[in-house]
Amino acid sequence: MSATDVMTERSFYAKVLEATPSGERLRLCLECGNCSGICPFGYLMLYPPSRMIAMMRADRINKVVETDTVWMCVSCYACTAVCPSKIPLTPGLMAGIKEELILAGNVPAELQSALANSQRYGNPQGESPRKRADWTLGIQPEVRIMAKHKQSVDVLWFVGDYASYHPRVQAATKALAKVLNALGVDFGILGPDETSDGDSQRLAGERGLFEMLAEKNGKALGRYQFNQIITTDPHAYNAIKNEYPALGISYPVQHYTEFLAERIDVLKLLMKQQISAKITYHDPCYLGRANGIFDPPRDLLCAIPGVELVEMTHNHTNSLCCGGGGGGMWLDGFQWEKAHVRLSDWRVREAMNAGADVLAVACPYETPRFEDAAKTMPGAEALKVRDIAELLAEALGV
Ligand code: SF4
Ligand code: SF4
Predict the structure, then answer these.
(1) Per CATH, is 264-396 categorized as 3.40.50?
(2) Is the pTM here over 0.70, yes or no?
Protein backbone atom coordinates (compact mmCIF):
# COMPACT_ATOMS: atom_id res chain seq x y z
CA MET A 1 0.00 0.00 0.00
CA SER A 2 1.49 3.36 -0.96
CA ALA A 3 1.66 6.44 1.26
CA THR A 4 -0.99 8.08 -0.91
CA ASP A 5 -3.63 5.42 -0.39
CA VAL A 6 -3.26 4.72 3.33
CA MET A 7 -6.53 3.29 4.56
CA THR A 8 -8.35 5.29 7.19
CA GLU A 9 -10.96 4.17 9.67
CA ARG A 10 -13.55 5.99 7.54
CA SER A 11 -12.55 4.48 4.21
CA PHE A 12 -12.40 0.96 5.67
CA TYR A 13 -15.75 1.37 7.40
CA ALA A 14 -17.30 2.67 4.16
CA LYS A 15 -16.06 -0.42 2.28
CA VAL A 16 -17.45 -2.81 4.90
CA LEU A 17 -20.77 -0.96 4.80
CA GLU A 18 -20.95 -1.30 1.02
CA ALA A 19 -20.07 -5.02 0.94
CA THR A 20 -21.82 -6.39 4.03
CA PRO A 21 -25.44 -6.34 5.16
CA SER A 22 -25.54 -4.96 8.73
CA GLY A 23 -21.96 -3.69 8.27
CA GLU A 24 -22.91 -0.60 10.29
CA ARG A 25 -22.97 -2.83 13.40
CA LEU A 26 -19.17 -2.68 13.33
CA ARG A 27 -19.61 0.51 15.37
CA LEU A 28 -21.39 -1.41 18.16
CA CYS A 29 -18.45 -3.36 19.57
CA LEU A 30 -18.59 -3.71 23.37
CA GLU A 31 -14.96 -4.78 23.62
CA CYS A 32 -16.01 -7.94 25.46
CA GLY A 33 -13.35 -10.03 23.70
CA ASN A 34 -15.66 -13.01 23.09
CA CYS A 35 -14.74 -13.08 19.40
CA SER A 36 -11.00 -13.31 20.02
CA GLY A 37 -11.50 -15.83 22.81
CA ILE A 38 -13.47 -18.28 20.67
CA CYS A 39 -11.26 -17.94 17.58
CA PRO A 40 -9.41 -21.26 17.03
CA PHE A 41 -6.28 -19.44 15.83
CA GLY A 42 -6.87 -16.17 17.72
CA TYR A 43 -3.86 -16.89 19.94
CA LEU A 44 -1.65 -16.69 16.84
CA MET A 45 -3.13 -13.50 15.40
CA LEU A 46 -1.39 -10.24 16.09
CA TYR A 47 -4.79 -8.61 15.68
CA PRO A 48 -7.65 -10.99 16.47
CA PRO A 49 -11.11 -9.49 15.74
CA SER A 50 -11.56 -7.42 18.93
CA ARG A 51 -8.05 -5.92 18.64
CA MET A 52 -8.71 -5.21 14.98
CA ILE A 53 -11.79 -3.19 15.93
CA ALA A 54 -9.74 -1.37 18.56
CA MET A 55 -7.18 -0.52 15.85
CA MET A 56 -9.99 0.70 13.63
CA ARG A 57 -11.33 2.94 16.39
CA ALA A 58 -7.84 4.35 16.90
CA ASP A 59 -7.70 5.01 13.13
CA ARG A 60 -4.73 2.64 12.84
CA ILE A 61 -6.37 -0.03 10.68
CA ASN A 62 -3.65 0.46 8.04
CA LYS A 63 -1.19 -1.10 10.54
CA VAL A 64 -3.20 -4.35 10.48
CA VAL A 65 -2.73 -4.58 6.71
CA GLU A 66 1.04 -4.59 7.19
CA THR A 67 0.87 -7.86 9.19
CA ASP A 68 0.10 -11.32 7.81
CA THR A 69 -1.48 -13.16 10.75
CA VAL A 70 -4.95 -12.18 9.48
CA TRP A 71 -4.43 -15.17 7.14
CA MET A 72 -4.79 -17.46 10.16
CA CYS A 73 -8.54 -16.75 9.91
CA VAL A 74 -10.33 -19.79 8.47
CA SER A 75 -13.68 -17.92 8.21
CA CYS A 76 -15.24 -20.39 10.65
CA TYR A 77 -17.98 -17.96 11.75
CA ALA A 78 -17.38 -18.72 15.45
CA CYS A 79 -16.63 -15.07 16.30
CA THR A 80 -19.78 -13.92 14.47
CA ALA A 81 -21.90 -16.50 16.28
CA VAL A 82 -20.78 -15.39 19.77
CA CYS A 83 -20.75 -11.62 19.26
CA PRO A 84 -23.39 -10.08 21.58
CA SER A 85 -23.63 -7.05 19.29
CA LYS A 86 -24.36 -9.26 16.27
CA ILE A 87 -21.51 -7.75 14.28
CA PRO A 88 -20.95 -9.57 10.96
CA LEU A 89 -17.30 -10.19 11.84
CA THR A 90 -16.53 -13.04 9.41
CA PRO A 91 -18.10 -11.67 6.21
CA GLY A 92 -17.56 -7.99 7.11
CA LEU A 93 -14.51 -7.28 9.23
CA MET A 94 -12.34 -10.31 8.39
CA ALA A 95 -13.22 -10.51 4.67
CA GLY A 96 -12.84 -6.71 4.44
CA ILE A 97 -9.34 -6.79 5.95
CA LYS A 98 -8.35 -9.71 3.74
CA GLU A 99 -9.46 -7.71 0.71
CA GLU A 100 -7.13 -4.90 1.81
CA LEU A 101 -4.25 -7.37 2.23
CA ILE A 102 -4.88 -8.68 -1.29
CA LEU A 103 -4.88 -5.12 -2.67
CA ALA A 104 -1.60 -4.49 -0.84
CA GLY A 105 -0.10 -7.70 -2.33
CA ASN A 106 0.24 -9.26 1.13
CA VAL A 107 -1.08 -12.72 0.13
CA PRO A 108 0.41 -16.21 0.71
CA ALA A 109 1.40 -17.78 -2.62
CA GLU A 110 -0.88 -20.84 -2.27
CA LEU A 111 -3.94 -18.63 -1.80
CA GLN A 112 -2.91 -16.44 -4.71
CA SER A 113 -2.67 -19.51 -6.93
CA ALA A 114 -6.16 -20.77 -5.90
CA LEU A 115 -7.63 -17.32 -6.64
CA ALA A 116 -5.86 -17.12 -10.01
CA ASN A 117 -7.11 -20.62 -10.90
CA SER A 118 -10.65 -19.63 -9.93
CA GLN A 119 -10.46 -16.65 -12.26
CA ARG A 120 -8.93 -18.57 -15.14
CA TYR A 121 -10.59 -22.00 -14.93
CA GLY A 122 -13.65 -21.38 -12.76
CA ASN A 123 -12.34 -23.67 -9.99
CA PRO A 124 -9.55 -23.23 -7.41
CA GLN A 125 -7.82 -26.48 -8.34
CA GLY A 126 -7.06 -25.32 -11.89
CA GLU A 127 -8.89 -28.28 -13.46
CA SER A 128 -10.34 -28.21 -16.94
CA PRO A 129 -13.99 -27.05 -16.91
CA ARG A 130 -14.65 -29.68 -19.59
CA LYS A 131 -13.83 -32.43 -17.05
CA ARG A 132 -16.27 -31.18 -14.43
CA ALA A 133 -18.76 -33.99 -15.06
CA ASP A 134 -16.20 -36.80 -15.57
CA TRP A 135 -17.16 -38.28 -12.20
CA THR A 136 -20.53 -39.31 -13.68
CA LEU A 137 -18.96 -41.87 -16.08
CA GLY A 138 -20.28 -45.35 -15.42
CA ILE A 139 -23.17 -44.34 -13.13
CA GLN A 140 -26.48 -45.96 -14.06
CA PRO A 141 -29.06 -44.62 -14.63
CA GLU A 142 -26.99 -41.96 -16.33
CA VAL A 143 -26.63 -38.60 -14.55
CA ARG A 144 -28.28 -36.01 -16.79
CA ILE A 145 -26.24 -33.00 -17.85
CA MET A 146 -28.64 -30.14 -18.50
CA ALA A 147 -27.06 -28.92 -21.78
CA LYS A 148 -27.45 -32.41 -23.30
CA HIS A 149 -30.74 -33.34 -21.63
CA LYS A 150 -32.54 -30.27 -23.01
CA GLN A 151 -35.59 -30.83 -20.78
CA SER A 152 -36.72 -29.48 -17.46
CA VAL A 153 -35.94 -31.39 -14.27
CA ASP A 154 -37.39 -31.18 -10.81
CA VAL A 155 -34.04 -30.77 -9.02
CA LEU A 156 -30.88 -29.02 -10.24
CA TRP A 157 -27.95 -30.47 -8.31
CA PHE A 158 -25.15 -27.88 -7.90
CA VAL A 159 -22.26 -30.31 -7.40
CA GLY A 160 -19.40 -27.89 -6.60
CA ASP A 161 -15.61 -27.88 -7.07
CA TYR A 162 -14.28 -30.47 -4.63
CA ALA A 163 -17.21 -32.85 -5.11
CA SER A 164 -16.62 -32.72 -8.88
CA TYR A 165 -12.83 -32.96 -9.08
CA HIS A 166 -11.25 -34.31 -5.88
CA PRO A 167 -10.61 -38.06 -6.31
CA ARG A 168 -11.58 -38.96 -2.72
CA VAL A 169 -14.63 -36.72 -2.65
CA GLN A 170 -15.86 -38.07 -6.00
CA ALA A 171 -16.70 -41.34 -4.17
CA ALA A 172 -19.18 -39.40 -2.00
CA THR A 173 -20.53 -37.56 -5.04
CA LYS A 174 -21.19 -40.86 -6.81
CA ALA A 175 -22.84 -42.19 -3.65
CA LEU A 176 -25.20 -39.20 -3.55
CA ALA A 177 -26.11 -39.73 -7.23
CA LYS A 178 -26.99 -43.35 -6.40
CA VAL A 179 -29.09 -42.31 -3.39
CA LEU A 180 -30.99 -39.78 -5.54
CA ASN A 181 -31.53 -42.46 -8.20
CA ALA A 182 -32.75 -44.93 -5.55
CA LEU A 183 -35.33 -42.34 -4.44
CA GLY A 184 -36.41 -41.77 -8.06
CA VAL A 185 -35.52 -38.05 -7.92
CA ASP A 186 -35.80 -36.28 -11.29
CA PHE A 187 -32.47 -34.42 -11.24
CA GLY A 188 -29.80 -32.97 -13.51
CA ILE A 189 -26.43 -31.22 -13.14
CA LEU A 190 -24.84 -28.25 -14.92
CA GLY A 191 -21.61 -30.18 -15.61
CA PRO A 192 -19.19 -28.00 -17.66
CA ASP A 193 -21.64 -25.07 -17.35
CA GLU A 194 -21.06 -25.01 -13.57
CA THR A 195 -18.48 -22.62 -12.08
CA SER A 196 -17.13 -22.39 -8.55
CA ASP A 197 -19.82 -21.02 -6.22
CA GLY A 198 -17.21 -18.45 -5.14
CA ASP A 199 -18.14 -18.35 -1.46
CA SER A 200 -14.71 -19.27 -0.11
CA GLN A 201 -13.08 -16.79 -2.50
CA ARG A 202 -15.42 -14.10 -1.12
CA LEU A 203 -14.53 -14.98 2.47
CA ALA A 204 -10.85 -14.98 1.51
CA GLY A 205 -11.26 -11.32 0.50
CA GLU A 206 -11.90 -11.58 -3.25
CA ARG A 207 -15.40 -10.13 -3.49
CA GLY A 208 -14.92 -9.06 -7.14
CA LEU A 209 -13.98 -12.61 -8.12
CA PHE A 210 -16.95 -13.95 -6.17
CA GLU A 211 -19.30 -11.67 -8.11
CA MET A 212 -17.78 -12.74 -11.42
CA LEU A 213 -18.21 -16.44 -10.57
CA ALA A 214 -21.74 -15.90 -9.26
CA GLU A 215 -22.74 -14.08 -12.43
CA LYS A 216 -21.45 -16.96 -14.55
CA ASN A 217 -23.48 -19.41 -12.49
CA GLY A 218 -26.49 -17.10 -12.67
CA LYS A 219 -26.31 -17.11 -16.47
CA ALA A 220 -25.94 -20.91 -16.60
CA LEU A 221 -28.83 -21.47 -14.19
CA GLY A 222 -30.98 -19.06 -16.20
CA ARG A 223 -30.67 -21.27 -19.29
CA TYR A 224 -32.50 -24.23 -17.71
CA GLN A 225 -35.83 -25.08 -16.16
CA PHE A 226 -36.02 -26.67 -12.70
CA ASN A 227 -37.98 -26.28 -9.51
CA GLN A 228 -35.22 -26.14 -6.93
CA ILE A 229 -31.47 -26.43 -6.36
CA ILE A 230 -29.71 -28.85 -4.03
CA THR A 231 -26.01 -28.54 -3.18
CA THR A 232 -23.35 -30.94 -1.98
CA ASP A 233 -21.27 -28.15 -0.48
CA PRO A 234 -22.47 -26.04 2.49
CA HIS A 235 -20.49 -23.13 1.02
CA ALA A 236 -22.44 -23.34 -2.25
CA TYR A 237 -25.62 -23.55 -0.19
CA ASN A 238 -24.61 -20.45 1.77
CA ALA A 239 -23.72 -18.52 -1.39
CA ILE A 240 -26.88 -19.40 -3.32
CA LYS A 241 -29.14 -18.85 -0.33
CA ASN A 242 -27.63 -15.75 1.24
CA GLU A 243 -25.36 -14.01 -1.28
CA TYR A 244 -26.63 -14.65 -4.82
CA PRO A 245 -30.06 -12.98 -4.30
CA ALA A 246 -28.34 -9.57 -3.87
CA LEU A 247 -26.92 -10.13 -7.38
CA GLY A 248 -30.36 -10.90 -8.80
CA ILE A 249 -29.86 -14.70 -8.76
CA SER A 250 -32.64 -16.19 -6.68
CA TYR A 251 -33.71 -19.84 -6.46
CA PRO A 252 -35.08 -22.12 -3.75
CA VAL A 253 -32.09 -24.09 -2.44
CA GLN A 254 -31.49 -26.90 0.05
CA HIS A 255 -28.39 -28.69 1.23
CA TYR A 256 -28.58 -32.35 0.22
CA THR A 257 -29.02 -33.44 3.85
CA GLU A 258 -32.13 -31.25 4.18
CA PHE A 259 -33.53 -32.58 0.91
CA LEU A 260 -32.96 -36.23 1.92
CA ALA A 261 -34.21 -35.73 5.47
CA GLU A 262 -37.57 -34.62 4.01
CA ARG A 263 -37.71 -38.06 2.34
CA ILE A 264 -36.57 -40.00 5.40
CA ASP A 265 -39.65 -42.24 5.57
CA VAL A 266 -39.05 -43.52 2.03
CA LEU A 267 -35.33 -43.91 2.73
CA LYS A 268 -36.07 -46.02 5.82
CA LEU A 269 -38.26 -48.35 3.78
CA LEU A 270 -35.49 -48.77 1.19
CA MET A 271 -32.61 -49.42 3.63
CA LYS A 272 -31.49 -53.06 3.51
CA GLN A 273 -28.14 -53.07 5.29
CA GLN A 274 -27.31 -52.54 8.92
CA ILE A 275 -24.28 -50.40 9.82
CA SER A 276 -23.33 -51.40 13.36
CA ALA A 277 -21.16 -48.50 14.44
CA LYS A 278 -20.81 -45.61 16.84
CA ILE A 279 -20.97 -42.56 14.58
CA THR A 280 -20.19 -38.98 15.47
CA TYR A 281 -21.13 -36.06 13.23
CA HIS A 282 -19.02 -33.01 12.45
CA ASP A 283 -21.19 -29.89 11.95
CA PRO A 284 -19.71 -27.97 8.99
CA CYS A 285 -19.38 -24.26 9.81
CA TYR A 286 -21.54 -23.07 6.89
CA LEU A 287 -24.28 -25.64 7.38
CA GLY A 288 -24.55 -25.46 11.17
CA ARG A 289 -23.23 -22.29 12.74
CA ALA A 290 -23.87 -20.00 9.75
CA ASN A 291 -27.22 -21.43 8.60
CA GLY A 292 -28.69 -23.26 11.59
CA ILE A 293 -28.99 -26.70 9.94
CA PHE A 294 -28.18 -29.14 12.73
CA ASP A 295 -30.93 -31.77 12.78
CA PRO A 296 -31.34 -33.10 9.21
CA PRO A 297 -27.84 -34.67 9.05
CA ARG A 298 -28.31 -36.25 12.49
CA ASP A 299 -31.82 -37.48 11.57
CA LEU A 300 -30.39 -39.21 8.48
CA LEU A 301 -27.67 -40.92 10.51
CA CYS A 302 -30.13 -42.07 13.18
CA ALA A 303 -32.38 -43.52 10.45
CA ILE A 304 -29.67 -46.03 9.45
CA PRO A 305 -30.28 -49.37 11.21
CA GLY A 306 -27.53 -50.20 13.72
CA VAL A 307 -26.15 -46.66 14.06
CA GLU A 308 -25.51 -45.22 17.52
CA LEU A 309 -25.00 -41.45 17.30
CA VAL A 310 -22.51 -39.98 19.78
CA GLU A 311 -21.56 -36.30 20.11
CA MET A 312 -18.11 -34.78 20.28
CA THR A 313 -17.31 -32.18 22.96
CA HIS A 314 -17.75 -29.36 20.44
CA ASN A 315 -21.02 -29.82 18.58
CA HIS A 316 -23.87 -27.86 17.02
CA THR A 317 -23.13 -24.06 17.16
CA ASN A 318 -19.99 -24.77 19.16
CA SER A 319 -18.55 -27.12 16.51
CA LEU A 320 -14.82 -26.89 15.69
CA CYS A 321 -13.84 -25.87 12.17
CA CYS A 322 -12.08 -28.46 9.96
CA GLY A 323 -9.78 -25.66 8.81
CA GLY A 324 -10.80 -25.87 5.15
CA GLY A 325 -13.57 -23.36 4.58
CA GLY A 326 -13.41 -19.72 3.58
CA GLY A 327 -9.99 -20.07 1.99
CA GLY A 328 -8.42 -22.19 4.78
CA MET A 329 -8.05 -25.01 2.24
CA TRP A 330 -5.62 -22.78 0.33
CA LEU A 331 -3.65 -21.62 3.37
CA ASP A 332 -2.62 -24.98 4.81
CA GLY A 333 1.12 -24.46 4.31
CA PHE A 334 1.04 -20.90 5.68
CA GLN A 335 -1.02 -21.91 8.72
CA TRP A 336 1.12 -24.97 9.45
CA GLU A 337 4.23 -22.78 9.53
CA LYS A 338 2.61 -20.46 12.09
CA ALA A 339 0.70 -23.02 14.19
CA HIS A 340 2.43 -26.41 13.78
CA VAL A 341 -0.99 -27.91 14.38
CA ARG A 342 -3.96 -28.53 12.10
CA LEU A 343 -7.55 -27.88 13.15
CA SER A 344 -8.47 -31.23 11.56
CA ASP A 345 -6.12 -32.95 14.08
CA TRP A 346 -8.08 -31.43 16.98
CA ARG A 347 -11.33 -32.68 15.50
CA VAL A 348 -10.10 -36.21 14.90
CA ARG A 349 -8.87 -36.34 18.49
CA GLU A 350 -12.35 -35.29 19.67
CA ALA A 351 -13.95 -38.02 17.55
CA MET A 352 -11.65 -40.58 19.18
CA ASN A 353 -12.41 -39.23 22.64
CA ALA A 354 -16.12 -39.63 21.88
CA GLY A 355 -15.46 -43.34 21.24
CA ALA A 356 -16.59 -43.10 17.61
CA ASP A 357 -15.85 -45.73 14.96
CA VAL A 358 -16.91 -43.35 12.19
CA LEU A 359 -16.60 -39.58 11.80
CA ALA A 360 -19.49 -38.57 9.53
CA VAL A 361 -19.30 -35.41 7.45
CA ALA A 362 -21.55 -33.42 5.12
CA CYS A 363 -19.09 -31.07 3.41
CA PRO A 364 -16.70 -32.01 0.60
CA TYR A 365 -13.74 -30.25 2.22
CA GLU A 366 -13.86 -32.55 5.21
CA THR A 367 -13.38 -36.13 4.08
CA PRO A 368 -9.81 -35.70 2.78
CA ARG A 369 -8.81 -33.36 5.61
CA PHE A 370 -9.99 -35.67 8.39
CA GLU A 371 -8.66 -38.79 6.63
CA ASP A 372 -5.22 -37.18 6.38
CA ALA A 373 -5.36 -36.25 10.07
CA ALA A 374 -6.47 -39.76 11.11
CA LYS A 375 -3.64 -41.36 9.09
CA THR A 376 -0.95 -39.46 10.95
CA MET A 377 -2.42 -39.45 14.45
CA PRO A 378 -1.31 -42.33 16.70
CA GLY A 379 -4.32 -44.45 17.66
CA ALA A 380 -6.66 -42.92 15.05
CA GLU A 381 -5.82 -45.31 12.21
CA ALA A 382 -9.05 -47.28 12.72
CA LEU A 383 -11.30 -44.19 12.62
CA LYS A 384 -13.27 -44.13 9.37
CA VAL A 385 -14.29 -40.83 7.78
CA ARG A 386 -17.45 -41.12 5.68
CA ASP A 387 -19.73 -38.63 4.00
CA ILE A 388 -23.37 -39.07 5.05
CA ALA A 389 -24.19 -39.82 1.39
CA GLU A 390 -21.73 -42.75 1.46
CA LEU A 391 -23.29 -44.16 4.63
CA LEU A 392 -26.79 -43.86 3.15
CA ALA A 393 -25.70 -45.52 -0.10
CA GLU A 394 -24.21 -48.39 1.91
CA ALA A 395 -27.40 -48.78 3.95
CA LEU A 396 -29.46 -48.74 0.77
CA GLY A 397 -27.16 -51.33 -0.79
CA VAL A 398 -26.60 -49.21 -3.92
S1 SF4 B 1 -14.05 -16.43 11.45
FE2 SF4 B 1 -13.17 -18.00 12.83
S3 SF4 B 1 -10.97 -18.00 12.36
FE4 SF4 B 1 -11.82 -16.07 11.51
S5 SF4 B 1 -11.53 -14.55 13.12
FE6 SF4 B 1 -13.60 -15.41 13.38
S7 SF4 B 1 -13.33 -17.08 14.87
FE8 SF4 B 1 -11.27 -16.56 14.08
S1 SF4 C 1 -17.59 -10.29 20.41
FE2 SF4 C 1 -18.49 -8.53 19.31
S3 SF4 C 1 -18.82 -7.01 20.92
FE4 SF4 C 1 -17.39 -8.52 21.78
S5 SF4 C 1 -15.31 -7.69 21.31
FE6 SF4 C 1 -15.88 -9.04 19.64
S7 SF4 C 1 -16.78 -7.70 18.10
FE8 SF4 C 1 -16.80 -6.56 20.05
Answers:
(1) yes
(2) yes
